[in-house]
Amino acid sequence: MAFKTKTFSAKIAQNPAIHFKTLTKRHFPDVMPHQKEILELYAEQHENSSDVALQLPTGSGKTLVGLLIADWRRSKLGDRVVYLCPTKQLVRQTVLQARDQYGIDVVDLSGRKSDFAPADRADYKTGAKVAVSTYSGLFNTNPFFDDANLIIVDDAHAAENYIAKMWSLEIKRSTVLHESLSTFLASYIDAQAFSRMTGDWNGPADAMWVEKLPTPQVDQIAPELAAIIDSHATRDEPDLYYTWSILREHLDACHIYLGANEILIRPLIPPTSTHTPFNNANQRIFMSATLGSGGDLERLSGRRKIDRLPAPEGFQTAGVGRRFFIFPTLSLTSEETDALRLGMQEVAGRSVILTPSTTQANQHCTLVNEHLKGFQVFTSDDIEDDKKPFTSTERAVAILANRYDGIDFPGNECRLLCVDDLPKAMNAQERFVMSKMGAAALYNDRVQTRVFQAMGRCTRALQDRSAVVVTGNELVDFLTDNRKWQYFPPELQAELKFGVDQSKEVTMEEIAENFEMFIENNTDWASADNMIRSAISDFDQREFPAMNELEVVVKQEIIYQEALWHQDYAGCLSACRTILGSLNHPQLRGYRALWHYLAGSAAHRLSASSGDAQFVSALEHYRQAKSAAPSVSWLNKLARHTPSTVNDDNLGEDEEVLIQIEAIERLFLTLGTATHHKFEKSVAGILSGLSDAKTFEASQVELGTLLGFRTGNDESDAAPDPWWLGDQVGIIFEDHAGGEASSIFSATKARQASSHPKWVKKKLSGTQEMNILPVIVTPCTKAKSGADPVLDDVYYWRLEDFVNWATHATNVLRELKGTFPGEGDLAWRAEAGRRLEAEQMTMQSILDRLPIASRAMEIVP
């Protein structure tokens, strides 16, 4: 007969650690000591806390801790519990661990709620079982989980984009809506911004371009913007429709960012308090190996205060296996690097490639298919639900685009991880705050966490080991910059130091030989591993600067966003001023500028008329913002209305120079800062090309690009020679590089040069309102008398002087690149501006140094 139930009354365990012993299907006798410690501390101090963060490093059994808390509260309090993972693959993995290893009954409720089995729905709703789902299962406009008592957010370090997505309207450049919005915005942004938005790029650096529509401007055009989006964000486009349904009535609480590939509309911080299913839970638990500091977890989750339970003593510094870092581009060309990677993949058998874009992923697919015969390629979609097809294939490459977390390959599953670049900023808002506002300090911890997570896909436990091949300028620059190492864990510092030393001044064959020793795990690798292990004690980890100030203000930042969502502009302004009173660290200058701008926007909205107290307050905040972040040109326009009684020398700064510096910075990042190989190759090609009439024009174009100008050339009939364009001023050249000093400059060429500005304004979009000036570059010192009248409107640059100036200019750029500390450094930008002005390398200073041709050349019959 069946056992009779309810023979004994159920006894609730005192804490989750004891609860584990009651699980009869568990495969482990007890939890580990460090797990027991954190579970007991949670039960003693945080059972009733609203928001709790648990930090447990990779390999320490974080999933078990979370599931035990979930099941304990379910049995003790009758809680409806949902355990959130970033991806479906992690949901599957968590469900299997819960059932097969821990003896915890859970239900998989990921995917479409219409597909949920009735029994699984009931198990969750009645509190019989813990539900496991993805972030998107909760963060949507109509979630199934609308009444959870406990929400557990696993891998909280990855939550920002998953949570913010609910309030982020992403409009890709290839869409009809993007075209419609771009056309509408053309009259509100400058012509060059419009060109970048619509795909008219001047090289790869323009792909990094980002701008923001000023809030006062958004307020003016909001009805027209909403009408355009309304006509496209229909139910036929669900990704647009549902997000727009949330944002439409709160456009004043959002910011509009313009990028080279998308338009992004989103609030500064996700307003999660407005999402009832999330906000009304009794408790939210955030779990991660790296919770970050400086209030970053609060910002990404929209919670005012989160109590933290740090990892038990000794686990903060625990290692997670060994990584052998390889940086091939420190010694090899791009072609050699590709060949090396392919050879290593052949040796490894299974490998994983992480890339930031589908385009790069496709390029890797092509390389593998062409050169690695018999290898099978897997994409993230192929292994989203189950990675076994990949891990059970001996000759395979998993190529994952824009997936730096969520899929792990520990142990023998994969020994070779290739990370081909990792953008520091994952969306247009982050790029704007980091690059335009110069507030990279805000994201220091977040960027570091992303990089660490990417590097650890194949090392999840102490016994794991993986070679990590790092390519892509931005990522190589980040990991090889020893100035940043002081903020890394000591073991990672030792691994990077070893990897950089082994990657410099070596051949492709030498790197390949070292990799083979690693794969074989022979005595040579054992010696190398001992070297790394012995060096760990030589390194210490420091906290990023200004973290305490960022942590102090985060509560007010959340209050600001909540007030803004409800159109409480007075509350916004009050929060802004409280924040500004606490941001004093020099590295927070750019972030302080952002909050001055936000305060100005709030005061502007409170102003009833031009000249009242709130209007004056708004202008003062704009002025302060401009003073701290001169690279944001539209802040200058807002600040120009400042009353004349306020003296600010920064308001007269040349916007042309600021835009030029920003372009140079983007180019330096594109060329890479870890080595100067690409820069030097470019300079050598320019200087060599300028010495040959056949290649002069092409080199002139490259030189202009290096100087931060928008450049081009056109070989069509009657077209001018190369052009260099700044923001409002441009140069159009008429080159006579093949001429002789003794020859006489003809009237025909003079007329051509004089007419070039008209050609540019007719043919090049965005130049109609610019001041385009013609410059002849020639060895000639004499001109025909017939040329005299038109040469009054043309500048003269003697060929020899131009070449000498080009040599000097590239030397200056070399020096600036040598001191370049990375993206968004305001002190470097200020010094670079002064240097460019002093060395006559800005658009206006170039023109100032050139004489008018009719005065510089001897006019002869």
Account of the 3D structure:
By secondary structure, the chain is an alpha/beta fold. It has five domains: 16-161 and 274-309, Rossmann fold, CATH 3.40.50.300; 174-260, no CATH class; 325-538, 3-Layer(aba) Sandwich (Rossmann fold), CATH 3.40.50; 547-653; 659-860, Restriction Endonuclease (3-Layer(aba) Sandwich). The protein is 47% helix and 13% strand. A seven-stranded parallel sheet has the order 3-4-2-5-10-1-11, with helices on both faces. Helix 8 (176-185) runs antiparallel to helix 10, helix 23 (547-565) packs antiparallel against helix 24 and helix 29 (677-690) runs antiparallel to helix 30 (696-706). The N and C termini lie far apart (123 Å). The model is unreliable at 642-653 (pLDDT under 50). It holds the Pfam family DEAD. It comes from Vreelandella sulfidaeris. This is Helicase.
